[in-house]
Amino acid sequence: MNVVKRSLAVLATMAATAGVLTACTDEQAYCVDLAKYAAKAVDVDPQKPVDYVKILDEAKKLQESAPKDVKDDWGVVVTFAEKAKKAGTDAAQLAELSKQTGGVMTAYKNITSQAKDSCKVDLPALN
């Protein structure tokens, strides 16, 4: 019976360790993706909605893998980028979107802060 208890204890420890390693790996993967995103986002002017289309695919990926504390913020960025994509080259729609950048910039500031604190990644500054 002792062998069974030891085996169960070892299995339980291994399962717990695997869970911790998986969480760490997920966060590391998010940080790596965030660093890749940072390199692409250098050319994005947060005041120009059309620029958000450039980062839409990366933002969607980051929204899926983001930690809980910034997942909603990524949702704000993705939603805005999708609206910009839908607007296309329509100057009137893009002008209207330009008036709505405040919420996106707030979300981006939260993402930037978390990126620096948790991932040691510097995202391009907002203008």
Automatic annotation (TrEMBL):
Signal peptide: 1-23
Alphabetical keyword list: Signal
Superkingdom: Bacteria
Name of the protein this chain belongs to: Small secreted protein
Organism: Kribbella pratensis
